[in-house]
Design brief:
By secondary structure, the chain is of the alpha+beta class. It contains eight helices and twelve strands. The chain has a six-stranded antiparallel β-sheet with strand order 5-4-3-2-1-6, with helices on one face. It has a six-stranded mixed β-sheet with strand order 10-7-9-8-11-12. Helix 2 packs across helix 5.
Length: 264
């Protein structure tokens, strides 16, 4: 097994012994085997979007099969470990540490795991079932690096989704969908610059900050109006109006806003 994966196993075992000493190995799936949980998004996605590997997990060996240990390894070598008692129902400890490995070593391991797990469709597998005792060829590393560009747009959208926006209470409280949206220059890294309106708010309404809620762009997309998602990475200066039940276009002050009540 790759030396970094051996270290991960050692870190997990030592923390199990320290914080869950009453949990015997036969209480754990496959006697405490570590599983590489790449099945959700894959190695490349987590590396470029979340700047970490998919989680490394140890599970309880019972019907619920909940996690006993979850280890997150970040691309800078940072490690966060979560330990769960009561057969996975209770978080008892969060440990922060670091793994002594170079950036190149961690990158090479990511390439190796993509090649030997993801590309072979080994999802959420026991680490010992993944062939990691092989040399990583330069062409595999080069391709992994080239693929970063495929995630640039998606990563930008993720950042925007996690940033705040200003939303008219005609949307949040009265149930209207977004009829008008405009993006200003973000004030800081936590601000998206977006403001969302139903479309008939007058100057008096807009001038009162009490008529707006501050929530993440992601919450707007998920809970209020998913139609805006395709537009959220448009640049500052963008002004859009709804022109139909499912489409927006640039506001040129020559059309009325199509307003509609949400079905949520």
């Amino acid at each position: 097994m790759h030396h970094i994966l051996i270290t991960i196993k050692e870190i997990i075992d030592s923390n199990l012994k320290l914080y869950l000493p009453h949990v015997a190995s036969d209480h754990l799936e496959n006697n405490g085997a570590v599983y590489y949980m790449n099945g959700k998004d894959g190695t490349e996605f987590d590396w470029y979007i979340n700047e970490k590997f998919p989680p490394f997990m140890v599970f309880y060996n019972d019907k619920a099969n909940l996690g006993a240990v979850k280890l997150l390894l970040y691309k800078d070598g940072g490690v966060v470990i979560y330990l769960f008692d009561d057969c996975g129902k209770k978080l008892v400890k969060e440990v922060h540490t670091e793994l002594k490995a170079t950036e190149t070593e961690l990158f090479t391991l990511a390439v190796l795991l993509k090649d030997q797990a993801d590309d072979k469709k080994l999802w959420n597998a026991d680490l010992t079932s993944i062939n990691t005792d092989i040399q990583v060829h330069n062409d595999k590393c080069s391709q992994f690096r080239r693929n970063q560009k495929n995630y640039a747009v998606l990563k930008n959208k993720f950042m925007i989704l996690n940033s705040r926006s200003y939303v008219s209470k005609k949307i949040t409280k009265e149930g209207w969908k977004v009829g008008y949206m405009e993006r200003s220059e973000p004030m800081d890294e936590t601000d998206s610059g977006w403001a969302f309106f139903a479309g008939d708010e007058g100057e008096n309404y807009v001038s009162d900050a009490g008529n707006f809620d501050v929530i993440s762009v992601g919450a707007v997309c998920q809970q209020l109006d998913s139609d805006i998602f395709k537009y959220i990475d448009m640049p500052a200066g963008t002004r859009l109006i709804r022109i139909s039940p499912d489409a927006f276009e640039a506001d040129k002050n020559d059309k009325e806003i199509y307003m509609m009540i949400s079905s949520r």
